[in-house]
Amino acid sequence: MAIDQSKIRNFCIIAHIDHGKSTLADRIIEKTGLLTSREMQAQVLDNMDLERERGITIKSQAVRIIYKANDGNEYIFNLIDTPGHVDFNYEVSRSLAACDGAILVVDAAQGVEAQTLANVYLALDHDLDVMPVINKIDLPSADPDRVCEEIEDIIGIEATDAPRISAKTGLNVEEVLERIVTDIPAPKGDKDAPLKALIFDSLYDSYKGVIVFCRIMEGTIKPGMRMRMIATGAEADVVEVGYFGAGQFIPCDELPAGMVGYVTASIKNVKDTRVGDTITDANRPCAEALPGYKKVQPMVYCGLYPADAAKYTDLRDALEKLQLNDASLFFEPETSVALGFGFRCGFLGLLHLEIIQERLEREYNLDLVTTAPGVVYKVHKMNGEVIELTNPSNLPDPSEIEYMEEPIVNAEVMVSSEYVGAIMDLCQERRGKYISMEYIEQTRALLKYELPLNEIIYDFFDALKSRSRGYASFDYEIKGYEKSDLVKLDILVNREEVDALSFIVFSGTAYERGRKMCEKLKEEIPRHLFEIPIQAAIGGKVIARETVKAMRKDVLAKCYGGDITRKRKLLDKQKEGKKRMREIGNVEIPQEAFMSVLKLDEE
Amino acid sequence: MGTKKLNAGIYIHIPFCVKKCAYCDFPSFPANEEMKHRYVSALIYEIEHRRWPYEIENIPTIFIGGGTPSSLSVDELGRLIRAVKRTYHVLPNAEFTMEVNPKTVDKEKLIAIRQLGVNRLSIGLQSTIDEELRLLGRIHSFEDFLKTYDDAREAGFTNINFDIIYALPGQGLLSLEKTLRRVTELRPEHISAYSLIIEEGTRFYTLYGDDEKRRQKGERPIALPTEETERAMDRLTKEILEEAGYHRYEISNYARDGFECEHNKVYWTRGSYIGFGISAASLIGDIRCNNGLDMARYIEHGPDFEEHMLTRKEEVEEFMFLGLRMDRGISKKKFEKDLNIPYNDVYRETTDALIRDGLIEEDDDYIRLTEHGRDISNHVLAEFLI
Description:
The complex is a heterodimer.
Chain A: E1 8-15, H1 21-31, H2 49-54, E2 61-68, E3 74-81, H3 89-97, E4 101-107, H4 114-125, E5 129-135, H5 144-155, H6 173-183, E6 196-205, E7 209-218, E8 220-221, E9 226-229, E10 235-245, E11 248-252, E12 255-256, E13 260-265, E14 278-281, E15 300-306, H7 312-325, E16 330-336, E17 340-347, H8 350-363, E18 368-370, E19 374-375, E20 377-381, E21 386-389, E22 401-416, H9 420-429, E23 433-441, E24 444-452, H10 453-456, H11 460-467, E25 472-484, E26 486-493, E27 496-497, E28 503-506, H12 510-524, E29 532-538, E30 541-548, H13 565-579, E31 581-584, E32 587-590
Parallel strand pairs in A: 1-3, 1-4, 4-5
Antiparallel strand pairs in A: 2-3, 6-7, 6-14, 7-13, 8-12, 9-10, 9-14, 10-11, 10-13, 15-17, 15-18, 15-19, 16-17, 20-21, 20-22, 22-24, 22-25, 23-24, 26-27, 26-28, 26-29, 29-30, 31-32
Chain B: E1 5-6, E2 9-14, H1 33-49, E3 55-56, E4 59-66, H2 74-87, E5 90-100, H3 107-115, E6 120-126, H4 130-136, H5 142-154, E7 160-166, H6 173-185, E8 190-195, H7 203-216, H8 227-243, E9 247-250, E10 253-255, H9 262-268, E11 273-276, E12 281-284, E13 287-291, H10 295-301, E14 305-309, H11 312-323, E15 330-331, H12 332-339, H13 343-356, E16 360-362, E17 366-369, H14 371-375, H15 377-382
Parallel strand pairs in B: 1-3, 2-4, 2-11, 4-5, 5-6, 6-7, 7-8
Antiparallel strand pairs in B: 8-10, 9-10, 12-13, 13-14, 15-17, 16-17
Helix pairs in contact in B: 1-2, 1-10, 3-5, 6-8
């Protein structure tokens, strides 16, 4: 069956978080009859339990649907759902590159937000035709006229005749389908040219091996072909090609230029199929790769250790399996005096870290000890050597260090005018460098700051939300490295340095952080038979101290009338608590304590 | 039903009192005569109809506790005790304890109780200082207590226990010493001395719950005695009572020679006992059983109970954490005889570590807590969980 390129529409949906992207995707799938509403599990495209629970898209997903338009023709819609979080910006950009147009969903009550802007710019960068849709018009607070103006004023795209819909109720979704046909261009590309296909995602399936999601730009891919990934150089024989049904893969004979689909080949590792790489025909390669490939670099690192040392191998196996599906996850073995054998892991951001951690605990049933996450610092040594520091313990002796650099981001915060002061204070506290502020409408401002990444990886989002009562949205991108006055803060428990508790901190806030860290640890570490000093030190000089008092007396549980239930419970609880402890020297430290640095700003 | 025949202690729970004390979290509440009558009838029904997993041969001990069992009339007590005696074979020399509280009995009632077969009384004294009694929410004064004690002696009771509570909010060592001295002068056969626990759901918890949390964190409490003071109170209690001829045989229990409470020792040594009434607990062989708390259901349908067959691991752990409450400790020989596992295979390492920390001591046969180990017994006992 030959596919008529003019009847293909490749598009994605972009939106600020919670503006209804996945709901609209579901509604489109439902309206085109791919699934009945009964078969629809809410949000078809978010496959992982975690995605559904958190209401976010972690992996890119795609689906092919057939739509019979009012002009009487059948169209192939390839809908590519993109991750919505800033951690996954690169994946988003590759997904966009696979499309010809984008539906921009804007909440009729919330209006344009920071990520709306960031996503639109990203889409425009990829020469996509952006088609605005105003969603949630069924909300009592909906103000589509205002939002329409906002889209035109702030983003600068025509929105007067944008469909006004409710993805939730299905209202006016047909209009969106028709507009996809008329407003989004058909793909181009010569199906007889040398193969050139863009990898926008890949996943590992235990039966099929690596499944590559790609957009065919030029040429045709079919089983039996020898394919080559240009950046990694890996080659493999194509076993199967096909398109995406809802929640299933449907094989077909070939994928010609303009189509979106999947390819399986004898590839064992997703590392060979990097997102953004170009697939070509090994026997008839294209002249040059598609632009924009880059290897994603982890931005946030932390140590992951099995709570039970015997589970080290299980943890390694689990990380390997997750990596099969997530080429941006980095890990390498490391040893900590305090925690034993574990892994230093690199992530795209804190959300990515949390997701991996949760998946390890849930899907692989592992009990983990996580050390405080940190960013990658560049340490310039006296001898000219530059170290990329991912673990504070590896910081060279201060006498060997000439200077250090830390990653800086360009941050944009969109906030209602009444909270501008509060947000500026927050950015100031986090060592932000003010760049600019513009009022994008009377009541809303766009603040631009440069912020050190290590100031935003912890609880910046939470602080932003609470200080603006939810009326601030935030987006950032990495700017680069800048020189900074940084020190390593060491924590001594019972006079012994605990390597896993060390962290790098801006020297101006070191005293404050050290003091808070000691207070927090005092709360976390249970009382022992002896007194335990907790100290924070910089280069051997103690800057803060707290003491966990010795346990002198405990409460005796009653066994009245021979009822030993309470006694048993009390002892079980005590025992259970001990299991979740790490013994360092002769002090038992609860696992949670290793994350204490994250909670310094609580209360 | 098994074929094994067991001796078992009997516990009967009477969940009635005149007024709830500020520290009390036992199932106990004031009730009218009709309610009491219906409850006793339900108890008798349970005593007569309850079937146990093993056949029960003889009853060496009975304990009627509460609440305030003496808040029942002599008639109700008579109905109850007669039901026990006609259903079970109570040994002629059985220890038969009943708890009484001052102001709920007079000499006449005590004589009647004596005649029903009760041969040991446990009187709730708590303190000899009236101010402390008021703080605790007791309905009696020390004077009232003395009256009850005299009546009990005159009624012919020769085995009497006093319950006292210490480490009260605002209490100092001097006031405890005063109570202890007065108590020893009265020469009861047995003294139970408990340090106060601030239990959730009590009036004390509302008042002192936060203070208790502070204390557990190692901070200085405001009203409650500090841990150091409480420890000194434990020491003082032991010192004064031992001086007066009472030996401690369990963390909170002291007796003159020959007057240790046999019923309580059944609990610590994992002997069998069967409990009747709401919330009552039983251990029969390797089965633990707990009656539910619902009074209305108990009266209508009899007890809802949960049975649990102990695993070998649980039996081993219980042997240790219950047995170590006794001053003489646990016998390794008895451990091996009862549980059929070599002690050293299970606990050698734990034992050595705790000895190193000065928390337990060991001789040829016995393992026991040291004074330090007793101070932080939960910490020590938790080590014996496998």
